[in-house]
Specification:
Blueprint lengths: L2 H7 L10 H9 L3 E2 L1 E3 L2 E3 L3 E7 L4 E8 L2 H20 L2 H17 L1 H12 L3 H29 L3 E3 L2 E5 L5 H14 L3 E5 L6 H12 L7 E3 L4 H9 L5 E5 L2 H11 L5 E5 L5 E4 L5 H13 L11 E5 L3 H14 L18 H16 L3 E3 L15 E4 L6 H4 L6 E7 L2 H8 L7 E5 L3 H10 L4 E4 L18 E2 L4 H6 L2 E3 L40 E3 L2 E3 L6 E4 L2 E4 L3 H20 L2 H14 L8 H8 L6 E2 L5 E9 L2 E5 L4 H13 L3 E5 L6 H11 L8 E3 L4 H10 L5 E5 L2 H10 L6 E5 L7 H7 L1 E9 L3
Helix pairs in contact: 4-6, 5-6, 6-7, 11-12, 18-23, 19-20, 20-21, 23-24
The structure holds 1,4-dihydronicotinamide adenine dinucleotide.
C-alpha cells in the first residue's frame, strides 16, 4: 500500500501498547492474589478467575474473601483508626500526596493493567482513568491539610466499607478512598469481581507509600463478600457505586443501623441537542458520551434528544461518524471502542437491544464487523423509540444510543426528566440563556453544557432521584465522610411546648363537643392552603383540645398538594422566599424568640460556588431543592418551626406530621400560615398519630426525602420504607437543628454545571 493509498483511505495500522510490564508484575505474583488486610497479604481458601475481555483469556486468580476475612479486614481498619486520627490533617495529606505521586510513577503499569482487566481502550486508561485517580489523591491531600480550618466541629466517621463497580476500577477506588482518608477514616474496599487487579496494585502502592498498616484494606470477592462488609456491625459508613438494584439491597440492609450511606447508582442520561447547536461538536460529544468506555458509564449520554428541525441532519452525521469508529484490541492505541467487560454483560446488551426491536425500534450499526476473539459489541443507534419504551427507560450499560425528538425546550425538559434517574445531562446549544435555563430545569446532579463526560476532583459527582444520594468530589464529597458535632438543643428556649408534658392520647373518636351549648371546635388539617377536616372525621385529645386525626388518605392528599406546588415554589427566587419567611417571622412574634427570622436570613445566603476545574472553563454549583420533603416532627416547637421553615426556605414543599404529643403549636401555626404569603400547598400539616401516618408518608413515591426524629425502631422503619423510590432519609433521634447550615445541606442537593470557554 502506498502512502497515497493510506492518505486516501485514512486507514490506521495497529499501534499496540506492550503488556510486558503487566505480565512481569503478574508473574511476580505467580498470577495468584490474596487479600490485603492490615498491611499484609492473606490467602483465601477459595478463589476465582479474572479474564481479559479483549481476548477472553484468564489473566490470574484472585481470592474470594470469606466472612472471617471480612471481619479481619474491618478489625484491622478499626485498629488503625487511633493512629491515623492521631495524625494532623497535614500529616495525612502528605500520605495522600505520596500515593498520588506513586500512581503517576506507575501510570503505565496501571493503565495497561486496567485495559487488560476491564477491556477499555488504553487511550482512555492512559489519558483519563489513571490521571484522574492521581488528581483525586492530590486534591484530597490538600483537603486533609485544610480540614481542621475548613470543617471545624467535624470529625471522621470511623471505619468505611466501600464497594465499587467494574467500569472505572481505579478511578472509583480513588473517589472512595481519597476523601475517606483525608477526613481521618480508615477503609475496607471491595473492588468488583470482574476487575479487582488495579485495586490490588493500589494495595502495593499503599505499602510503598508507607501508609500505616490497616488504614487501607482491599478485599476481593463477589456480591456475598460485599454483603458481608455491608452487614458488618463495626462499619460506620457504606459508600457504594453500582446498580440501582444492589443500591436498594444495601439501603435495606443498613436501615436502622446508623451507618452513614452514600449511593451512586445508575442513570439514563439525556444528551440534548438544540437546533442552534454546533452539530459537528455535538457529534464528537456524542461519541464521548455513549461510546466512551463502551457505554459502560453510569452517566453515559444514552438518550439522544434532538430538536425535530435538525434531527435528520444530525442523525446522518452520527451514522457517518459511527461508520468511522474502530472497535478492537483494548491495548491498541488507535481504537475508539474496546471490549465489553464480561459475557454476561454482552448478553444483557443483546437482550435489551432485542427487546427494543420488538417494541418497534429501528437499528443502525456500522457495516464493519467486530473482532471475533474477545467480547465486543458494535456501536449501535436505535431510532423510532417511544419515550416509555424499555430501551428509553432502562440502563443498557453498553454502546447503544437511543434517539428521540422534541419540538420545544419545554418538551426537551419533560423528556429529559422522564426517567426515574437523575445522574447527568448534556446540553448543546449556542444560546447561553437557553443553556442555563435547561441546566436549571433538568433533574440531574451534573450538567455539561456543550461538553460531556467531564470529571474532576473539585466538582462533586452524584445523583438526584433513583441515581442515588451523596456526592463524590468537591467539598460536598467530604461531608460524606465527616460527622458534625453540634451543640445540644438550647435549654433556655422559651417556646410554647418545651417544658410542657404531653397530654394523654385518646386514639378513638371523641364524643361530640357542645357541652353547655358551646360549638364543637376540632382543629383541622392544613392541606393545599386550606383548613380541611380529616378524611375519617376522627380526632384525639391533647391538653383538652381536640386535634384532627389524619389518615393515609389525608397524607396522600397532602403529598399531592405539595407536588402541585413544588415547581412554582422551587422557581420562586430565594430573595422572595426569604421575604415571605420574614413576614411569617413577624406574625410569629407573639410566640417569643423563634427561629423563623434566622431561617429567613439564611434563605438567600446558602449559595452555590464556582470550581476551578482543569479545563478552559469552570463549573458552578447550585444548591437545588430536593422536591417534596416529608417531616416527621420531634416534640419541640423549635424543631417544628426550624425544620419546616428551612425546608421551604431552600425551595422544597413539605408535608409535616407534627408530634402526636405536642401538636398544638402546629395547629396554631397553620392559622398563621393561612394569613401569610406562603403559596397554597407549600406547607401541608397533617396532625394525627405519627405511627399511623408515617408508613404512608415514608412509602409514598411522591416524597423525595423524609426527615424523621424519633427512636431507632422508627428510624429503621422509615429507612426501610425509603427503598421504593430511594428517597433520601434523615432519620435520627438527635435534634441538631441549631446548626442552620447543616439543615440547609439536608434540604438541598448539589448540582454541578460545567461551562467550557472559548469560541
Ligand atoms: P452490581 O451493582 O451487582 O455490582 C457492583 C458492586 O456491588 C460489585 O462490587 C459487586 O460485587 C457488589 N455487590 C453485588 N451485590 C452486592 C450486595 N448484595 N451487597 C453488597 N455488594 C454487592 O453491578 P453488576 O452486576 O456488576 O452490573 C449489573 C448492572 O448494573 C449493569 O448492567 C449496569 O446496568 C449496572 N451498573 C451500574 C454501575 C454504575 O456505575 N451506575 C456500575 C456497574 C453496574
Amino acid at each position: 500500500m502506498s502512502v497515497t493509498d493510506i492518505l486516501e483511505s485514512m486507514e490506521y495500522g495497529p499501534a499496540p501498547e506492550s503488556p510486558q510490564f503487566v505480565n512481569e508484575w503478574l508473574d511476580h505474583h505467580q498470577r495468584r492474589f490474596g487479600q490485603f488486610i492490615g498491611g499484609s497479604w492473606v490467602q483465601s481458601n477459595e478463589s476465582f478467575e479474572v479474564f481479559n475481555p479483549g481476548n477472553g483469556s484468564v489473566i490470574c486468580t484472585v481470592g474470594q474473601t470469606d466472612d472471617a476475612q471480612v471481619d479481619a479486614a474491618v478489625r484491622a481498619a478499626r485498629t488503625a483508626l487511633p493512629l491515623w486520627q492521631g495524625l494532623t490533617g497535614e500529616e495525612r495529606g502528605r500520605y495522600l500526596y505520596v500515593i498520588a505521586r506513586q500512581i503517576q510513577k506507575h501510570a503505565r503499569l496501571f493503565a495497561v493493567l486496567e485495559s487488560m482487566d476491564n477491556g477499555k481502550p488504553i487511550r482512555e486508561t492512559r489519558d483519563l482513568d489513571i490521571p484522574l485517580a492521581a488528581r483525586h489523591f492530590y486534591y484530597h491531600a490538600g483537603w486533609a491539610a485544610l480540614l481542621e480550618t475548613s470543617f471545624p466541629n467535624h470529625q471522621a466517621l470511623g471505619v468505611c466499607g466501600q464497594i465499587i463497580p467494574w467500569n472505572f476500577p481505579l478511578l472509583m477506588l480513588a473517589w472512595k478512598i481519597a476523601p475517606a482518608l483525608a477526613c481521618g477514616n480508615t477503609v475496607v474496599l471491595k473492588p468488583a469481581e470482574f476487575t479487582p487487579l488495579t485495586g490490588l496494585l493500589f494495595a502495593e502502592i499503599c505499602t510503598a507509600a508507607g501508609l500505616p498498616a490497616g488504614v487501607v484494606n482491599i478485599i476481593t470477592g463477589d456480591g456475598a463478600c460485599g454483603a458481608a462488609l455491608v452487614n458488618h456491625p463495626d462499619v460506620n459508613k457504606i459508600a457504594f457505586t453500582g446498580s440501582t438494584e444492589v443500591g436498594r439491597i444495601i439501603r435495606r440492609a443498613t436501615a436502622g443501623t446508623g451507618k452513614k450511606l452514600s449511593l451512586e447508582l445508575g442513570g439514563k442520561s439525556p444528551f440534548i441537542v438544540f437546533e442552534d447547536a454546533d452539530l459537528d461538536g455535538a457529534v464528537e460529544g456524542l461519541v464521548d458520551a455513549i461510546w466512551f468506555n463502551q457505554g459502560q458509564v453510569c452517566c453515559a449520554g444514552s438518550r439522544l434528544l434532538v430538536q425535530e428541525s435538525i434531527a435528520e441532519k444530525l442523525l446522518k452525521k452520527i451514522r457517518a461518524r459511527m461508520e468511522n469508529l474502530r472497535v478492537g484490541d483494548p491495548l491498541d492505541k488507535a481504537i475508539d471502542i474496546g471490549a465489553i467487560v464480561a459475557p454476561v454483560q454482552l448478553e444483557r446488551i443483546n437482550e435489551l437491544v432485542q427487546k427494543g426491536l420488538e417494541e418497534g425500534a429501528e437499528i443502525f450499526q456500522p457495516t464493519w464487523a467486530c473482532p471475533r476473539e474477545g467480547w465486543f459489541y458494535p456501536p449501535t443507534l436505535l431510532t423510532n423509540v417511544e419515550p416509555a419504551s424499555t430501551v428509553a427507560q432502562i440502563e443498557i450499560f453498553g454502546p447503544v444510543l437511543v434517539a428521540m425528538t422534541f419540538r420545544t425546550p419545554c418538551e426537551a425538559v419533560e423528556l429529559a426528566n422522564n426517567t426515574v434517574y437523575g445522574l447527568a445531562a448534556s446540553v448543546w446549544t449556542e444560546n447561553i440563556n437557553l443553556a442555563h435555563d435547561i441546566a436549571a430545569r433538568v433533574k440531574a446532579g451534573t450538567i455539561w453544557v456543550n461538553c460531556t463526560n467531564q470529571f474532576d476532583a473539585s466538582s462533586g459527582f452524584g445523583g438526584f432521584r433513583e441515581s442515588g444520594y451523596g456526592r463524590e468530589g468537591g467539598p460536598e464529597g467530604l461531608r460524606e465522610y465527616l460527622a458534625a458535632s453540634f451543640q445540644p438543643v438550647s435549654e433556655t428556649s422559651n417556646l410554647a411546648n418545651e417544658s410542657k408534658s404531653p397530654g394523654p392520647l385518646t386514639p378513638y373518636p371523641l364524643s361530640p363537643g357542645g357541652a353547655r351549648g358551646e360549638l364543637d371546635r376540632t382543629h383541622k388539617l392544613y392541606i393545599g392552603g386550606k383548613q380541611v377536616r380529616p378524611d375519617g372525621n376522627y380526632s384525639f385529645e391533647v391538653e383538652g383540645q381536640e386535634i384532627a386525626r389524619g389518615n393515609r388518605k389525608d397524607i396522600r392528599n397532602a403529598v399531592e398538594a405539595a407536588q402541585n406546588a413544588a415547581k412554582a415554589w422551587a422557581n420562586t427566587p430565594a430573595f422572595t422566599r426569604a421575604q415571605i419567611l420574614y413576614y411569617l417571622a413577624e406574625n410569629l412574634q407573639d410566640w417569643g424568640p423563634n427561629p423563623v427570622f434566622e431561617c429567613a436570613a439564611m434563605t438567600d445566603k446558602f449559595e452555590g460556588s464556582v470550581h476551578e476545574v482543569p479545563m478552559r472553563g469552570f463549573t458552578y454549583t447550585r444548591n437545588e431543592p430536593i422536591g417534596v420533603i416529608g417531616i416527621v416532627c420531634p416534640n419541640s416547637t423549635e424543631g417544628l418551626l426550624k425544620l419546616t421553615c428551612m425546608a421551604i426556605g431552600m425551595g422544597n414543599t413539605v408535608v409535616v406530621i407534627p408530634s402526636s404529643e405536642n401538636p398544638i403549636p402546629a395547629v396554631e401555626l397553620y392559622r398563621i400560615l393561612e394569613m401569610s404569603d406562603i403559596p397554597a400547598g407549600v406547607v401541608n400539616i397533617v396532625t394525627g398519630l405519627q405511627d399511623e401516618l408515617i408508613p404512608t408518608l415514608a412509602d409514598h413515591d411522591g416524597v423525595d426525602s423524609i426527615w424523621y426524629f424519633g427512636p431507632p425502631e422508627g428510624a429503621a422503619d422509615v429507612e426501610l420504607r425509603s427503598c421504593g423510590n430511594l428517597k433520601q432519609t434523615w432519620a435520627t433521634r438527635y435534634e441538631p437543628w441549631l446548626d442552620i447550615r447543616y439543615l440547609c445541606e439536608r434540604a438541598t442537593q448539589v448540582k454541578n454545571i460545567w461551562i467550557p470557554m472559548g469560541e
